[in-house]
Amino acid sequence: MDLCRCCHAEGCFQSLTELINTVTYEDMLKICFDIMICHAPDNNRQYAICNQCILKLQDAYYFKKQVIENEQRFSEYKNDLDMFPEVKLEPPSDTVPIGDSDDDIDLSTLKKLKSKSDKRIKKEKHKITEITGLLFIIQNPVKA
């Protein structure tokens, strides 16, 4: 008759040293809970674990393994984001923000510069004509 070292049930159980994949039950206890079960070398029957405790231990072991792997994956993902920070794109604007306006200059200090070409520019007269309710600007109206 074996004694489960986790819940003290009596029956025919698995040895804590039994290898499952690449790890033993005693390794799982150490990894998950930092628990070392004392082993009496002359009595292997008291160094066992029952099926119910095996299921609970395996659940805890695989859960811890899952969390560690996913935390590592998240850390790598976060490092990738830190290397390439997201840039917020703003829609293009045709207006100049008020703070960036150049109209803050005192106009009294400016001198009006007159270019020589200003004299050569011919001022044209425009005639505004209304046709069926619409206004039209006619450049260089033809004299009738």
Automatic annotation (TrEMBL):
SUPFAM superfamilies on file: Glucocorticoid receptor-like (DNA-binding domain)
List of residues binding Zn(2+): 4, 7, 50, 53
UniProt keyword terms in alphabetical order: Metal-binding, Zinc, Zinc-finger
GO MF entries: zinc ion binding
Domain ZAD stretches: 2-77
Pfam families with a match to the protein in the record: zf-AD
InterPro entries recorded: Znf_AD (IPR012934)
Example of a GO cellular component annotation carried by this entry: nucleus
PROSITE patterns referenced in this protein's UniProt entry, alphabetically: ZAD (PS51915)
Top-level taxon: Eukaryota
Protein name: ZAD domain-containing protein
Species annotation: Pieris macdunnoughi
